């Protein structure tokens, strides 16, 4: 029986830390080889981290990457290593290096460069034009990179039709809610249609706005999931594949038995036999390991929460912050962010700051103190009343005869931001903001006030989703009253969010249609929404663009976030 033992090294590299990433790759390689793996696989751009962005313009960066590749090659003995990196030959390519027996066997160039959503690969790379396959110990396998298997083209099928029994796809595929289910259906369909094993290796970890969720997997030639790695965590997944299963499936269901003339010139790169001694541990698949898609999916709430925790944890740790602080108001947003922070960093690395005013209700005070008690985090209380009084006194002459309005409300928010930033400067803490996507979309936020900070944890989470995920994860940590009381900024007597906004269940539906489905006024109204409400919401979205452009980076969890996904001109007279 022909078998092949393969190790999926699902790692969390740091962008630009080429030495650290190299060390991690060598460490995982040792563990994989000790398991008897014959092929050891690492993700797309594993050596540099994903995505290096304009670091790719610097020759020193590319040269350092290639030097590190040479170090890997020297350490590869009687096995194969496949790893992603940028590489310059006649041009710059997003590449996969195939190494064995101390030699660089081949370099595969990514063919399909995504240039949508958060992707900007055409800015940096030239697309590849070769579609090689590799023969090793009687097994023919193919290598491609991320979009190459996602793209509805023939490249992957050409590899399979040329004889590839195993397709290895190395990837750095950013997370958003419900994407993974679609990805599973695509990958299982690809495997079934080709009658080949599909090994899909995804990176894991947070990088600025994006989160990579891991969940690498192996799909059988029959389209069944037979191995899956951890979600949002590093993992080493080893599996032994029965290559004869490909022959059995293809004989009975010869879906790719076609040989167009252009396939005759496909390059087959032969890799000398390594004669790896497999360790005794059994990595062969059993019937009980074959899983249906429904059995490997996380709930929407769990996916989103894990993504937010991963994004915050990696942003803080990779950028060298020891602690975070955030303003606690007694509302759902700050309570949810505090819970995320405690889960990501531990209670000793989180400080809540309660900054009451004369408009702060007793209920909010009680809820803040109950929350921090349940979380076990530090709390600092600093009243803003005296400072606010001094502001009003200072401005009294120039404001004489004018009624109070949003100006006085925003002053309070900016005082709180000044306090948080003073703590940040004095103690080196990262200020994390608590504004949600609904507020960011319509500008229900204060520039240089509650928007001020270093990282916007729930910037891409609609208000209704905040309630939903917070309820799922709370388990009594967030006081029950926080879920039931009307949301309020408490910047004037009796204020609620709905004084300025439509109810959140209506607002969020309109925003999703506009932001994620690219619908304008007429189209949204046809869904049954009130015309005046739709006009008001879309006008608010348009007017708030200058605020969003100045907001901190935040974690992407939806198909279209208000970060790299959203690129609208501030000066803009088009009416939707």
How would you describe what is shown here?
Strands 13-12-9-8-7-6-15 form a 7-stranded mixed β-sheet. Strands 5-4-3-2-1-14 form a 6-stranded mixed β-sheet. Strands 18-17-16-19-20 form a 5-stranded parallel β-sheet, with helices on both faces. Helices cover 37% and strands 18% of the residues. It has 19 helices and 20 strands. With 576 residues, it is α/β, with parallel strands linked by helices. Strand 17, helix 10 and strand 18 form a beta-alpha-beta unit. Helix 11 crosses helix 12. The protein starts with a strand and ends in a 28-residue tail after the last helix. The mean pLDDT is 91.
With helices defined by DSSP (H or I, 4 residues minimum), what is the helix count?
19
Structural class: alpha/beta
Biggest sheet, spatial arrangement of strands: 13-12-9-8-7-6-15
Q: Say what oligomer this is.
A: single chain
Determine Rg (CA atoms, Å): 27 Å
Span of the ends, CA to CA: 63 Å
Specify the helix fraction band. 25-40%
């Amino acid at each position: 029986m022909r078998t092949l033992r393969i190790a999926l090294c699902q790692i969390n590299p740091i962008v630009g830390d080429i030495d650290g990433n190299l060390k991690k790759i060598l460490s995982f390689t040792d563990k994989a080889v000790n398991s008897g793996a014959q092929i050891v696989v690492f993700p797309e751009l594993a050596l540099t981290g994903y995505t290096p962005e304009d670091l790719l313009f610097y020759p020193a960066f590319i040269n350092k990457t290639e030097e590190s590749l040479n170090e890997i090659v020297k350490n590869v003995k009687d096995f194969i290593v496949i790893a992603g990196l940028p590489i310059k030959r006649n041009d710059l390519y997003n590449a996969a290096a195939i190494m064995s027996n101390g030699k660089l066997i081949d370099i595969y160039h990514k063919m399909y460069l995504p240039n949508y959503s958060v992707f900007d690969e055409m800015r940096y790379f030239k697309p590849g034009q070769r579609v090689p396959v590799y023969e090793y110990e009687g097994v023919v396998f193919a290598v491609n990179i991320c979009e190459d298997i996602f793209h509805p083209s023939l490249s992957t099928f050409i590899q399979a039709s040329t004889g590839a029994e195993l397709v290895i796809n190395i990837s750095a595929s950013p997370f958003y809610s419900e994407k993974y289910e679609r990805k599973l259906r695509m990958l299982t369909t690809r495997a079934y249609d080709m009658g080949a094993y599909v090994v899909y290796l995804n990176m894991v970890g947070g990088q600025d706005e994006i989160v990579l969720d891991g969940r690498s997997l192996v799909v059988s030639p029959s389209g069944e999931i037979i191995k899956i790695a951890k979600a949002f965590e590093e993992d080493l997944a080893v599996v032994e594949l029965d290559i004869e299963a490909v022959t059995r499936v293809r004989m009975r269901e010869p879906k790719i038995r076609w040989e167009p003339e252009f396939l005759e010139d496909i390059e087959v790169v032969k890799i000398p036999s390594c004669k790896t001694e497999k360790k005794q541990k059994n990595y062969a698949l059993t019937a009980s390991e074959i899983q249906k898609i429904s059995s490997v999916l996380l709930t929407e709430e769990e996916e989103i929460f894990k993504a937010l925790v991963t994004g915050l944890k990696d942003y803080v740790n990779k950028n060298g912050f020891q602690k975070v602080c955030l303003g606690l108001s007694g509302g759902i947003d700050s309570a949810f962010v505090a819970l995320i922070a405690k889960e990501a960093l531990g209670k000793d690395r989180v400080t809540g700051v309660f900054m009451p005013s004369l408009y702060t209700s007793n209920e909010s005070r009680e809820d803040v103190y109950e929350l921090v008690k349940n979380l076990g985090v530090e709390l600092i209380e600093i009243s803003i009343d005296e400072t606010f009084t001094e502001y009003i006194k200072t401005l009294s002459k120039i404001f004489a005869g004018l009624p109070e309005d949003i100006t006085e409300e925003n002053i309070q928010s900016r005082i709180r931001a000044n306090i948080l930033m003073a703590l940040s400067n004095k103690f080196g803490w990262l200020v994390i903001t608590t504004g949600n996507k609904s507020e960011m979309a319509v500008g229900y936020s204060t520039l240089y006030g509650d928007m001020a900070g270093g990282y916007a944890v729930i910037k891409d989470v609609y208000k209704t989703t905040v309630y939903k995920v917070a309820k799922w994860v709370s388990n009594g940590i967030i006081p029950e009253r926080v879920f039931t009381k009307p949301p309020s900024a408490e910047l004037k007597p009796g204020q609620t969010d709905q004084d300025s906004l439509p109810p959140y269940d209506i607002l969020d539906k309109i925003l999703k249609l506009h932001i994620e489905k690219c619908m304008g006024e007429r189209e949204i109204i046809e869904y049954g929404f009130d015309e005046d409400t739709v006009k008001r919401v879309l006008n608010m979205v348009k007017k708030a663009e200058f605020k969003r452009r100045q907001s901190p980076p935040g974690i992407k969890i939806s198909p279209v976030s208000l970060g790299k996904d959203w690129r609208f001109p501030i000066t803009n007279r088009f009416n939707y």
